[in-house]
Amino acid sequence: YEGKNVKLAFYAYSADVYTWTSLHIGNVKLDAVPADCGGVSSISLRRAYDRSATVEWEAQGNQNMNVEISTDPTFLLARQLTASATPFTITGLQPNTLYYVRARQACDSEGDWASMSFRTACSAVTPQELGLVTFAEGDVSVRCWEMNVDRVGTGSTVITPAHVVTESGHNLLEIYKPANGDNDKYGNDYDAVMPDLTIDDINDYQLIFHAKTRSVSHNIAYLTVGAYTEYGIYTALDSIRLTNRMTEYRVSLANYHVQTAGDSFRSMMFRIAAPADSANVALLDSISIRLLVSECDAPTALKVDSVGMAAVKLSWQGDAAGK
Questions:
Q1: Which of 164, 191, 220, 282 has a CB 3.0–4.6 Å from the CB of 148, allowing a cystine?
Q2: Contact (CB, 8 A) for 186 and 274
Q3: 176 vs 45, which has greater pLDDT?
Q4: Using CA of residue 285, residue 287, residue 293, residue 297, what is the dihedral sign?
């Protein structure tokens, strides 16, 4: 409207035609908006970590921003922050949490907000923190799984309800491999990656899970299980020909070693394989990572060898020795 004569009007409206509505107006004034304060057109996520996130925005002119972040979409009790440049990193967040963030220029305190939402990444967990994964409804750790290629097409996504099916009252993770003549012989591109794991000595552990197939054609399905590294390198540790009966399997990690210098273990991965012209499904349940020696094996013959001023030396016998 620059250079034009403009008339401003106030209009009161009631949805009920039988009710009189009054509109009271006072203290009306017009303030000039600085020339370099043209508003925020958009805000977007650059990257989310487990306890921080970096956002960026498009703004005309001044880049000084008032930023608010909250777990409530109405921004109730929002944290109020200030930023002087884009991109801007927000710290002090919680892992695997949905956040809402909005920004507007500090030079226009009554201006419109640009807003968006994002979920922080999952923190790495120990086998004990992971516990027993059953894909039950409400289990937030399920969001920390990653599906590589699914029914929708190529790509990567977190597990959603579409990946979980219910059979006989149990929720099962479904890894689907479609028939596709363009794949390799066994179509090894359909994976489920567990949440990132923190394990002091991976060779002391084993992966325990239940699995079966629901064959669509040819009744052939192989499930390879292996370790997945920070560099994205997959090392198969076992290959299992699945049956139509849910069966418990145990895969030892005793002989696993990272192959590339500078790389490190990240997590475990399940991969469904079948002939290229065959569509197949692997169903998983009750997944955990446990010590090769059961944590429940109690030591025997416990005794005190010596007592010092600030320490005591103990010794024992049994399978749990050293754990």
A1: 191
A2: yes
A3: 45
A4: negative
Q: Whole-prediction pTM value? A: 0.66
Task: Please tell me the least confidently modeled range out of 201-210, 289-298, 308-317.
Answer: 289-298
Which pairs count as long-range contacts for 150-154, CB under 8 Å and 24+ apart, including other chains?
A: 150/176, 150/190, 151/176, 151/178
Higher pLDDT, 169 or 158: 169
pLDDT attached to residue 183: 44
Quote the CA–CA distance of 120 and 100 in Å, as a whole number.
Answer: 11
Radius of gyration of the chain (CA): 29
- CA-based end-to-end distance of the chain: 76
Task: Write the DSSP string, 98-162.
Answer: EEEEEEEETT-TTSPPEEEEEEPPPPPB-HHHH--B---TT-GGGGG-EEEEETTEEEEEE--GG
Element of type H or E holding 178? none
The three-class DSSP label of residue 211 is strand
150 — pLDDT class (breaks 50, 70, 90): very low
